[in-house]
Amino acid sequence: MEQNDKKTPAPRRDPSQLNAIEKFYEKFRGIPLKYIDIFIIVCLVALAAVVLIGSLKGFGVL
Amino acid sequence: MEKKFDIKKFLSNNAIIILIAILALAVGFSTQNFFSANNLKNLIANVSPRFIIACGVSGCLITKGTDLSAGRQVGLAACLSAMLLQSVDYAARMIPGLPDIPWFLALLIVMAVMACFGAINGCVIAYLKVPPFIATLGMQTIVYGLCSVITGNQPMGGFKPSYSNVALGAIGPIPYLAIFALIVGLFMWFLYNKTRHGKYMYAIGGNENAAQVAGVNVTATLIRIYVLAAVLYGLAGFLVGAKAGGASTATGFGYELEAIAACTIGGVSTNGGVGKVPGILVGVLVFEILKICLQFLRVDPAYTFIAQGLVIIVAVALDLRKYLAKK
Lengths: 62, 327
Description:
The structure holds two protein chains of two kinds.
Chain A: H1 2-7, H2 20-26, H3 33-58
Chain B: H1 7-13, H2 15-30, H3 37-62, H4 70-84, H5 103-126, H6 132-151, H7 161-168, E1 170-171, E2 174-175, H8 176-194, H9 196-206, H10 208-213, H11 218-244, H12 255-265, H13 277-296, H14 301-326
Antiparallel strand pairs in B: 1-2
Helix pairs in contact in B: 2-13, 3-8, 3-11, 3-12, 3-13, 4-5, 4-6, 4-11, 5-6, 5-11, 7-11, 8-9, 9-11, 12-13, 12-14, 13-14
């Protein structure tokens, strides 16, 4: 029984009750979490790259 | 049953904080003076007004709203403070005939004026049901226009020493700015956790209709939240003006995005109902430490903006992830 409960997806809320941000977030409902994780990792790598490039430019290496 | 520590979840929830902490340690050990008293003072001076702004924005975010006029309201408050607190003998006074007034009276006047803008924001959102994004975007432009009109787009300086001392002074090693931020932080913590207003606020953020049915006066609570936010912007603007030693229409530009990003990093969900004062402080600290790290690394200012933008994107992506994982 407990397992069945876990598999049942949470019921969707009435769209009229959602605010603008939730409506925007709802558009990503079909996207698996792992893709969001990959996006976050890509952004963090980009952040590290920007800091590195900016710093190298600041020190006159680039 | 004992709860298992989920390292993946922990890393995912605190990715930015961990990354900035690593960056700070790397910069600290590879450069001189990063771990110095002066740098700590600089950090506190930068964090204090931003924390006050973020506390104001947090109430709006917790109730599923936002306040895009925060930065411009801070700018207007700084300009009003500057107009009221220029030295009597300063040649280019904005209001030449104004008598010498004490700084705390000027602060009260500025906070009262800003409360009016907050009340307008709150009424438009609560009574007219205008989405907070639109209402505060409109207010942002109105406030900027008003600020340009009353200052004539002229930068202001020549402050009274007592006003400048509000930002520069200290009690022992603790700057006045930090004391202001500490008082606001304690007040907000008490308000959010120990009062009926705080409970109403979280209830509205969780489910506005359910809160209404349960007897919460949603309209009055929302108006109070936006008024309180504007009062805090007034205080922050007053401090920003004192710290900078001048004010202009450009003061406070972009502060609202920094505050929203800091709140999101600190665990305040843009979907409402979630957020704590210590988390907001952590979010603001993360953002300011990032800026200081970039300065120590001599990163070009253009790259600094790119880095800050990426942090905001990651903060929103993390919030989205939490939202999707919860459903």
